[in-house]
## 1
Amino acid sequence: MPRQFIIEAAMVTLYGELLQPSQSVEYIVPYTSILELYELQSTSDIIMSNLDHDQHVKQQMKQLTSYLEEPLNRKKIEHALQIPWTKSTSIPLCDSIIITVINAVDTEAYGEDFDPIETELLLIAQRLQIPLLTDQYEFIQRIIEGGLPVQVFDIEDFQFALEDNVFSPRP
């Protein structure tokens, strides 16, 4: 069984190490974070500090959205969008990576402390009891300070997160 993480779709395109894991991985992404990819790839705003890196990341975003728009993948995603909290059938990215899209519902459970996508990430992590992977230090701090029942890893600790089973729920 692959190691599972809740993650924003943009993170998969921003960090190359996420596409070369040392073991099988399943990234579970909220559908709204896929929609965010379309905004990010078409914005004139600079996402990365280096212009070459910025163009590369936006190209990666376009490749991912194009792949997800392929008929079979689109059908899997559209099926999940029919009912709240439904997960798509797994979409393989390569031999060791699959993406699963979830139709999460932002219930405003965390009010003004978290934005809608952050809220969805938290709710998915709580609901599925799967660790959250992010690069947003402030987001991690707010999770810790709020005492939220979510296991969270910084993307810089991705290799450790792959190996970590100490806090994983037991059947």
## 2
Amino acid sequence: MVAPRKAAFAEESAEVEVLYANLEKLKGLTKKIQGSLNRLETSGKSVEEAISPIYGNTRRLQITNTNIDKIIDVIDRIREPLDQRDQEERIIRSDPRKVGIPDYISSLDRATRALAGLKISKLKSNVNAINELSSLLKFGAKQLEDVFRDILRQDTGTIEPLHYLTKNIPFPSITPENVSLLRLINTHVAASVAQTSQTTPQTYPTAKAYSEIRGDYIASSLRNLATASINTTRKQNADAVYRRGQSSISYYSDAIRQMAVTEYNNICPIFARDEWGKMCVATMRNALNEYGKTLRDLNTHIQQNIITDCYLAYEIVDIVSKLAMNLEKQTAELKQPLYDILKPIRETAKGSISRLLEDTRTRLQNMAVLPADAGSVPATTEIMTRLQTLVQFLEPLSSILTSIGDGNWLKGPTSPTSSYTPSIRSFDVGADGDKLFVNYSIDTIDYLLTALENRALLMMKTPGVRGVFLMNNIAIIERMIRSSDLSPLLTPTVIDKPLKKWKDKSKSYTSQWTDLAHQTLLDVQHTSRMRSSSGGAVDSSSVVKALSSKEKDAIKEKFKTFNTGFDDLVAKHKGYRMERETRQQFHNEIYRVIEPLYARFWERYHDIDKGKGKYVKYDKGQMSAIIASLA
């Protein structure tokens, strides 16, 4: 057993020996590796010491290279505007219409951006380039402005407005193609001015060009109508009264309205919305100035012929007021300039209201004679014709009378208390212009009849003649009211009351007939003599027989007095020149007074002269016939 054990131990011992041998080898190898590592570390340090300067230089070179690239990039950017200038100069120096306006504007935009780039660089070396590019842009802008003007002139040939008005043809406008080009150019120019201007510009070249060229076109086209408005107002006869529509001012004003509307429609697609009103006013300025000058000339003419031509002032007030209101729908900016233009004529129109009243009084005061036959005077017809003419201008007159104030026209234009400052009632929105005209008409008629009465008191001796005279003129007044446009305003309800006092004064004529009848045809009646015993009609022979001699003589005297007075009144009546209304009015009153009294008196006393006609000149039938002949 011992031998096997020894053999096993010997084998394991051999293996251990082998392991020890390998371990020794490993230790030797480890020492070699450690030595190699030490040598490698030493070599690495040497390499690091050698490479470190090279790496630093490389990093510096990389940074330098990056900086160089950036410098090159900046130089390229700096050179880009200069290169852009050279590229755009060829286009900008060309005719915009040949290049094409959109392309030309695009080139200007690029050149503008290039100039901005040069200015940002702030390099002294770019000063010349900046100046050159600025000059180039100015040249281009001038080119565009010239094209803008040329396009405008294509549609600005002077026209004759009357041709379009009379034939109801729309006024010519700028063609759509030209509108598109004008809008394109204007938009560019406006934007350029806004960018380059230090402050907000009041205007810019294309806007100024538009207002000048189109303004001159409108003003020159309207010039003939301005001249016609003056020429058609000139008087051939100094006493001729102006008639509505006689002057061409209505055509002139309508032409201004239509041309302003047409121009506004041209402006809207070309300019920005906030410029529409301002551009319309600027474009119409020359035309409105010429219009104002024409109205000032007409105002001078009206003032020199205020009585006959004040109606032109009312017509102008009406026309210009409506013109301003119509144009306000398009652009409110034109309303105030038109009202400013109208103001002098409106003041003249206001002053004329009192002047007409004063003329009524003065005209009659200067009347040297009155008709001997008590006929109406021409002045009455003239004054009523004046009212008939005034009512044709009721709308402007309502406005004028409202601004004067009810009754203030009686103060007169030169009265110290009359400065034509509108009263509170003048500003009342409910003030009735028609009512004011009615009041003015009544005052005019009252002025007329007062002046006629004053002249009659001086120049007509008897009340009867004065009564016929007044009634004749009242008849003319009433007739001319009924037969004209005054009738809806001066209705019987309105005019009867003011005329009643004058009709009462005209009764001085019929009072003669009444006095005669009362003095001669009224008698003291006794009941016992009035009727026969049978109760029938009055028996003249019985009545006469019952009279005493003294009573008979009194009755005879009454017949004689009546006959004389009646014949005298009839002769005078037939000698007067009476209007048909006057004659009928007086006939009715004479019939009402004379016929029943005479019939009663005749029935009682006609037997006083036994039918001889010595005292009883007329029977009842004859009296009725004579009275009927007075109608």
## 3
Amino acid sequence: MNQHNFMNHNIQISGFKGEITDTKEIMDYLMDISVECNSEKCTIQLINARGIAGEKHILQATLQAIKAFERNKNMAKDLGLEICVRASAQRQISRALKILGIDNGKMDICMVAVDCDEQVQKKVGEILGEKNHQVLKPDVNSLQELYEISPEEIESAGNIERVMLERTALLNLEI
């Protein structure tokens, strides 16, 4: 787990290799964990890690989501969904969830927790399984296909992570 403190917010980012058998059960469990944190501000979002271009990418998206809520410029009603929207560089929640949403089956998962206690990673790991930070490393081919990124765009930006950082930053200008 990597922990970051920005703008008076504690952000935890972790990767997991897991198998989901019931997404509703997972969401209910996450809600219970949030309540246990004794904080109305605790947000836990699970994201399909195949759509993440590294930890900087998800951290930038999280910071943009927090800023959007602080400025009343959010597109989603909930911070977790706003993180998905920002990370996917999409303006539509449905498209963001299609790209980054979790589903039943084996998958690599990125967990983002904002303003939660330090036990959140352990508790999430109890249901998701094996913690594995390697799942946050970008898979260039998957990301190119998922986001329709050309080799020229990668060459221009320098690498796939920078492409996604640019796209998430540009989303702010479009809103």
## 4
Amino acid sequence: MTTQAKILLVGNYALDGQQSMKRYAEFLKRELAARGYRVELLEPSVTLGGLASPKNPLSKWLGLADKFLLFPRTLRKRAREFDLVHICDHSNAPYLKYVSATPNVITCHDVMGIRSALQHYPENPTVPSARLLRRMQWIVDGLKSAKCVICISRKTEEELLTLLERRPPLQRVIHHSLNWNYQKMSVEEAAPILHKLGLAPKARYLLHVGGNQWYKNRLGVLRIFKELRKVPSFQGVTLVMAGKSWTPEMRAFVSQEALQGVIELVSPSNEQVQALYSGAQALLFPSFHEGFGWPILEAQACGCPVITSNRDPMREIAGAGAVLIDPADPVSAAREIALRLRNQDQLVKDGFVNISRFSKDAMINSYLETYEEVLQGAKA
């Protein structure tokens, strides 16, 4: 595709606080621009949404007005100035009708929100409101109209096709690359960072990185760690839980079980996470579901063995460089970890081999090839 092509990336509303989507859109913009493409990132302006405090119930409705009353006019007008429009988040699929006159692409990161609303997950029983169901159906209807959908994993593609009940005209799976330059830190580099986090230079610890979404299975992390504490070789091993502050349920579990050796680390920096990966015995990542599973790659890039679920997309992303466990069975998970984690050196080697599948160049080349297919299809 010629670098003269003008690409419009459509991002998310700032007040929604979707940091992973923000990083993804900015990553695409940065890498496409570095290759000489003329690229712009357009996001809904915060106009009405800024008039009310985030705690005010009215702020949500004002934000919806910004996104779905005011922004579509701007988007329709600006889209005509570009050769291709890429909507970076599938939750914005309703925008597709405003860019239909321009060749377009949309990325689907996962359909867990939609499937949860439709009560597809026994681990997350819900009673969705009629309004939420309408919102989810609006997204599905938008995706059904898509000419080209990029999914970030084969599992996401599989679940999306089940929802759509048909394959879009053009469908591609393009894996993420790392969106930060994670690599193994030396002991000397990591030690002062870990010391500030309360970890001794030779501390033995397992690491979990993630938020409190139900599918992250953070209570399951604690349950697995409780079982591991019974294994002689894991005596003295600490669990570091990095990410969001614990939920009341997690605090209650730690208290009721008198679980020792657990450290809560809220909102660590990328550098701190890199140091944690570099010094950990392993990443413990027993998610029930994911769209992709970035921490798996981050850990492998830092030479950290990975323990993750025997489900996709975790298996798909981890490759051979992981210990696979049943995330719903803490006893069997602990038994498998105690057995398989003995061979840490091989897990690290396999992890480094696996990470090579997810290079930045491979990702961007795949996007450019897909863009070219879309542009050629529009000319046919």
